[in-house]
Structures are given as structure tokens and as C-alpha cells.
Amino acid sequence: MIKRIAKIFKRDKQPPPFDIEKAIGNYLLTLPRCSSKVLVISHRYQDKRYNYELTVEAHSLATWAERHAKGAWSSIDAEQAARLALPLWLRLADLSDDAETLMPIEFFNICNKYHSTFIEMPRTQITCNDCGAVIEEVIKTETQLPKSEIFDMNKFEWHCPQGHLLYQDEVGLHADSRKFTLQNMQEAFTNEGKDIPSFLRKLAD
Q: How far, in Å, CA of 51 to CA of 153, rounded?
């Protein structure tokens, strides 16, 4: 009888809540100390869109990271923990160390979306992988591509003054101005092998 009651209580027991502060503290303890310069963008992070290296001073990046942590949020616990840990890691940087520090991949995944912001920061260094030149000004181009389903697609490219490709990406910038109908939304999701979500069905009605 006692064993049966114990099993009932065991089944009703809820998993403990995610302790984000504890997770951040434990994560920071595993990281090497940051130096005065941080390599924010590089092919060494295994993202082939970037053919250049971008180095930012730790204190400048820390100021940005603090604002970003306050203004952004993710429902993914690990991603949110990394976002909150980033400014703490940067504030503990050894400013007497002029070596270049590679970020953990979790931090790179947060920062790489804002690389166009970082190139405008003072004392940021941009180096072309092809010619090795330190670049003073990035040449940016934007090309409109044929529409993809209900999105306008644009291709973004950056080049160094010697013409070497630094960065490229294709982005769906905004929804087509066509009226959202159940039919055209269903076509878009079907092409991706998915079914249209119920909440979009209601919007289309």
C-alpha cells in the first residue's frame, strides 16, 4: 500500500523550473576570460556567408550587448541564457590583453545578425579573407530577386574595394501586397511540406 501511494506522488511530481541565473553562472565559469578585442565575425565560426573578419573592442561590444539583453527575448532557455551571459562575460574582459578572443558559438549566433551594426562602431577592424586588407569602407549592393511565394526577395552583397565578396545573403524582406487568402497561404506552406496553421486559417477567413 505504501509503495502504491509513493508511486502516485512520484507521478504527480512536476519538473523543476529552469533556473536561468544559475545556468548563466555555471556557463560563465566554463568560459576562458575575454581579452580587450573580440572576433565577432569570422569563417572560423563555420558560417559560409561571411568572407571577412570583424574585430570589435570588448567594452564597445559590452555596451551593445547590455542594451540588446534588455530589449530582446527568446522563448528558448539556452538562447536567452546566452544573451544575458554575453554582457557579463564582456564586462569581465582583461583590457590589458591585446590578443583576439574567439566567442563561444552561442554568442556568435546572437551577434552575427547585427554585423552591419558592428561595422559602424569606432575602432572596429574589418579584414578581407581574400586579400588580407584592412577595409576602411565596405561597398554594399542590394539586388531585387524574383518573388518567392508571398515574399519580396532581395540579395545583399558586400565587397571590399578590391572587388572581393565579403558577405552575401538572400532575405525575404516583406510580405507581398496581395491580399492574404487561404489559397495562396496554403500554397506557400504546401511547397514547404507543411500544413497551414489554424490561427492563419482564421486570419484568412
A: 22
* pTM listed for this prediction: 0.70
Residue 156: φ, ψ to 5°:
-105, 135
Closest CA to 144 of 171, 113, 177, 180: 171
Degrees, nearest 5: CA angle 31-83-94: 40
- As beta bridge partners, residue 148 has 151
CB 53 within 8 A of CB 130: no
| pLDDT tens-digit map of 35-80 | 999 999 999 999 989 999 999 999 999 999 999 988 887 776 778 8
The tally of CA atoms less than 13 A away on the side-chain side of residue 66 is 9
